[in-house]
Write a structure and sequence with these properties.
By secondary structure, the protein is of the alpha+beta class. It has 3 helices and 7 strands. 28% of the residues lie in helices and 34% in strands. It has a 7-stranded antiparallel beta sheet with strand order 1-2-3-4-7-6-5, with helices on one face.
């Protein structure tokens, strides 16, 4: 009878280990979350023939929202949905291109000359490059909601965003 407590301890440890192994086999070591059917349906519609790159559930001040990274035609997009699976925003995810940073020596001569003149001898370490492109935008209403859709000159989606009706 002195061995009874030890037997229970060993049995409890084996059960705990077995449960942990079963959970690991079931999830293959990955954390999974339940995604509402409405959210899944909207993701399928919005990604078209693209694919989901990443997925986050976030808690905002007005409730749960979802941020989904999509890759469509080789372009990265950020899709934001509310808890009901309604599109709040879909836009190009500004991924910084890999490669060398822009330096004074890599700038076109005219740009370099103007920057040096306007900086009046003050040293600067970082150069930001902004590329403005012509875009086309429309406002449409579907599924009872108003959206603004912006597309660039080569037909790539720049942004699709839910806009509040003026009512």
């Amino acid at each position: 009878m002195k061995f009874l407590p030890l037997t229970f301890s060993v049995l409890a440890a084996c059960l705990a280990l077995g449960t942990a192994l079963a959970a690991d086999e079931k999830g293959a070591g990955k954390l999974t979350i339940d995604i509402p059917a409405e959210v899944q349906t909207t993701i399928d519609k919005e990604k078209g023939d693209g694919k989901v790159h990443d997925f986050k559930r976030v808690n905002e001040s007005d409730g749960t929202a979802y941020v989904i990274g999509l890759i469509i035609d080789g372009t990265h997009y950020s899709l934001q949905l509310d808890a009901g699976g309604r599109v709040m925003r879909k836009e190009i995810d500004e991924v910084q291109p890999e490669g060398q940073p822009v330096t004074l020596d890599t700038l076109p001569a005219a740009v370099k000359k103007t920057l040096l003149r306007e900086a009046r001898g003050v040293e600067f370490k970082e150069i930001d490059v902004t590329e403005a492109k012509k875009t086309y935008a429309v406002e449409v209403t579907y599924e009872g909601r108003k959206f603004r859709i912006e597309v660039d000159a080569i037909g790539k989606l720049v942004r699709k965003e839910h806009v509040q009706d003026g009512n």
